Amino acid sequence: MKTAVDSLNKTLGHKISPEVEWSAIWAESKDRFSDKSTFVPTISGFLMAWYERLIARLENDVYSEWTEELLDVLSESSRNVVLYVQVCQHAQVYRPTPN
User: Cβ distance 21 to 87 under 8 Å?
Assistant: First the structure.
């Protein structure tokens, strides 16, 4: 996962740090993991896929306007951006957006 995080930070020129709410995610999803040892690698894999998808979008010229908007938003902040990974009450797919 570190490689995906480092790659996104390099691509953006800004630091985005994942902060995973492990206990809340575990409480919500433990019944889906018959083997507890697969929980952290599975969630980390989802997070890596999200980072890789965002990188692919940033590097795709089709989304250049969106990328510029995201970079503008990031440039306005002097702080690092935190990506909160938490339980969602609604089963929807969320895609990276600049807002």
Answer: yes
